[in-house]
């Protein structure tokens, strides 16, 4: 191989790749944690080094040129290789101290993780934890997080996944709401009540109809994509909500609605990348999370 012919650096190639994938310099700069002028200089330097124009600039938008399209596939392969190198290097680290990113839903991050992280701090004070509170599934293969707490089984072949336990979700409402509006005794009593949904009603009403819950869009006067926001709305007497037992049982102002109603099963999975699981630091956090989350506190 003629090494002298390889004259550009990875930072420039990465700047080009992220700009192409994000669609603009500003978005790419945010993704990489750089300033837009710095990123623009890296892309321009790569164009100068290769002697080609990679983007057509029309106003604020960028469009790949034919040369850019031809180069993109090769740089993507470089990015994937760089990611594998990073994963392998992280996995080989045997030091305890360092950074670990945990991805979980906003409700789990807010109401379940804090006491567990307190235990972790006492056991390994040198570990720096970043909590990525998101209701989207973080891509562990692309290093969006090191460990993920999920409620669906991870399917990617490069992930190590562990079913920690089966949890359950139930209907809850504030005691004040139930005192004012009455306590449903059967599911037919749900008809006159207000509910708080986590998505557009038409998306989850189909599931409710399958289990014979007599709910319509008229029952859902409030919706939110945030579990924390939904829970706080319910705590402010605005309706009935579905929430994990692990969370609901910790709030004295909240009450189960129709406790005899069959709860909704919610599996709790832990996932990490196969390479990262060889890291002593990642393994320690993974095992502590597994032990803490597996404890059924009912």
From TrEMBL:
Where in the numbering of this chain does the HTH lysR-type domain appear?
8-65
SUPFAM superfamilies with a match to the protein in the record: Periplasmic binding protein-like II (SSF53850), Winged helix' DNA-binding domain (SSF46785)
One Pfam annotation, family name?
LysR_substrate
Query: What keywords appear on the UniProt entry?
Result: DNA-binding, Transcription, Transcription regulation
BP terms from Gene Ontology? DNA-templated transcription
**Signal peptide (from-to):** none
Q: Which GO terms describe its molecular function?
A: DNA-binding transcription factor activity; sequence-specific DNA binding
Family annotation (InterPro entries): LysR-type_TF_proteobact-type, LysR_HTH_N, LysR_subst-bd, WH-like_DNA-bd_sf, WH_DNA-bd_sf
Concerning its family, UniProt says: Belongs to the LysR transcriptional regulatory family.
State what protein this is by name.
HTH-type transcriptional regulator GltC
**Origin organism of this chain?**
Pseudovibrio axinellae
Q: What is the organism lineage in this UniProt record? A: Bacteria, Pseudomonadati, Pseudomonadota, Alphaproteobacteria, Hyphomicrobiales
């Amino acid at each position: 191989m003629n090494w002298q012919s390889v004259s550009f650096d990875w930072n420039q190639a990465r700047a080009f790749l992220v700009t192409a994938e994000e669609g603009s310099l500003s978005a790419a700069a945010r993704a990489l944690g750089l300033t837009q002028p710095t990123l623009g200089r890296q892309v321009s330097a790569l164009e100068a080094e290769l002697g080609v124009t990679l983007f057509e600039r029309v106003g604020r938008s960028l469009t790949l040129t034919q040369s850019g399209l031809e180069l993109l596939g090769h740089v993507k392969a470089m990015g994937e290789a760089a990611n594998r190198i990073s994963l392998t290097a992280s996995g080989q680290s045997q030091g305890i101290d360092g950074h670990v990113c945990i991805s979980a839903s906003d409700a789990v991050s807010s109401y379940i993780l804090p006491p567990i992280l307190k235990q972790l701090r006492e056991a390994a004070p040198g570990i720096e934890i970043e909590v990525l509170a998101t209701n989207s599934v973080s891509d562990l293969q692309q290093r969006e997080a090191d460990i993920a707490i999920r409620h669906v089984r991870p399917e990617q072949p490069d992930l190590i996944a562990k079913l920690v336990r089966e949890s359950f979700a139930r209907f809850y409402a504030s005691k004040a709401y139930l005192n004012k509006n009455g306590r449903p005794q059967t599911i037919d009593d749900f008809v006159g009540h207000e509910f708080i949904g986590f998505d557009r009603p038409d998306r989850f009403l189909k599931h409710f109809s399958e289990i014979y819950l007599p709910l319509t869009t008229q029952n859902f006067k409030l919706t939110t994509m945030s579990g924390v926001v939904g829970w706080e709305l319910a705590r402010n007497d605005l309706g009935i909500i579905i929430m994990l037992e692990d969370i609901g049982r910790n709030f004295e102002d909240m009450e189960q609605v129709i406790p005899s109603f069959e709860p909704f099963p919610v599996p709790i999975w832990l996932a990490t990348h196969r390479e990262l699981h060889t890291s002593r630091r990642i393994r320690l956090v993974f095992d502590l999370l597994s032990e803490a989350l597996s404890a059924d506190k009912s």
